[in-house]
Amino acid sequence: MYGVTALGAFLLGLVVGVLLTRRYAPAADDRAGELQRSRERILADAEEERRRLRHDLHDGLAPTLASLAMALDTARLTLGDRPEQVGPLLSDLRQRLAGAVGDIRELVAGLRPPALDDLGLAGAVGGLADGTDGIMVEVKISGELTALPAAVEVAAYRIVSEALSNVRRHSLAASALVRLDRGPDALHLVVADPGTGVPQGRDGTGLAAMRERAAEVGGACTIGPRPGGGTAVVARLPLNPLPEEPRRVRRHPSDHR
């Protein structure tokens, strides 16, 4: 009798296990597939950014600098033969040089927002808040935001920027809250507003970009309804993301012989 009871319990457990597997396996497969697609988008976006940067440097900035060098040679030769004509040449050269400097600044800003280096993350986020026209944005900071990994700083700044842009364009809210909390192992970020909320079925490039910014540093970002109405963007950014570049290998003095 005991053997029959044990066998029945085993078969019952087996059936329940099969039913649970059938119920939850599709959801697990969907999550794994979504994670894989997100990683593929991140890699594709990174490669596209490298291609854009190479194009801007090779086909834009490099010819401009070469042209400036030729113009400088022309001005130098003219100075000896026709010095009265050097003034206009130098004036034109200066205008073109100013344009090249502007192009370089745009390239640098695309790689890393200058405000992060000038003001730090707290000051840069404060600047975003002050620059959100028509909306009173309150910024609350908990913990020290210095000495953060560079990738985490950029991800946090971009997420806050996109979230405040969505508040301004879509929420119809008059106020918003930005909260940055540094924990022992992660930076926690919240951007909340009491507006109309995210329209049903809307998942544009801005929302996807915020999620991918967080995923790039091994974190996560969710966008959803806020208790009491409105929208909340919530992100967790680990403070030990993957290294941005390979570590330098220390060489033994004998390697230089």
UniProtKB/TrEMBL annotation:
Protein keywords: 4Fe-4S, ATP-binding, Cytoplasm, Iron, Iron-sulfur, Kinase, Metal-binding, Nucleotide-binding, Phosphoprotein, Transferase, Two-component regulatory system
Chain ranges of the Histidine kinase/HSP90-like ATPase domain: 151-241
Top-level lineage group: Bacteria
Residue ranges, annotated region (Disordered): 238-257
SUPFAM superfamilies: ATPase domain of HSP90 chaperone/DNA topoisomerase II/histidine kinase
UniProt cross-references to InterPro entries, sorted A to Z: HATPase_C_sf, HATPase_dom, Sensor_HK_TwoCompSys, Sig_transdc_His_kin-like_C, Sig_transdc_His_kin_sub3_dim/P
Cofactor: [4Fe-4S] cluster
Biased composition (Basic residues): 248-257
Subcellular compartments: Cytoplasm
SMART domains: HATPase_c
The keyword Transferase appears for this protein: yes
EC number per UniProt: 2.7.13.3
Pfam families named among the record's database cross-references: HATPase_c, HisKA_3
Catalytic activity, as annotated: ATP + protein L-histidine = ADP + protein N-phospho-L-histidine
Function: Member of the two-component regulatory system NreB/NreC involved in the control of dissimilatory nitrate/nitrite reduction in response to oxygen. NreB functions as a direct oxygen sensor histidine kinase which is autophosphorylated, in the absence of oxygen, probably at the conserved histidine residue, and transfers its phosphate group probably to a conserved aspartate residue of NreC. NreB/NreC activates the expression of the nitrate (narGHJI) and nitrite (nir) reductase operons, as well as the putative nitrate transporter gene narT.
Name of the protein this chain belongs to: Oxygen sensor histidine kinase NreB
Higher taxonomy: Bacteria, Bacillati, Actinomycetota, Actinomycetes, Streptosporangiales
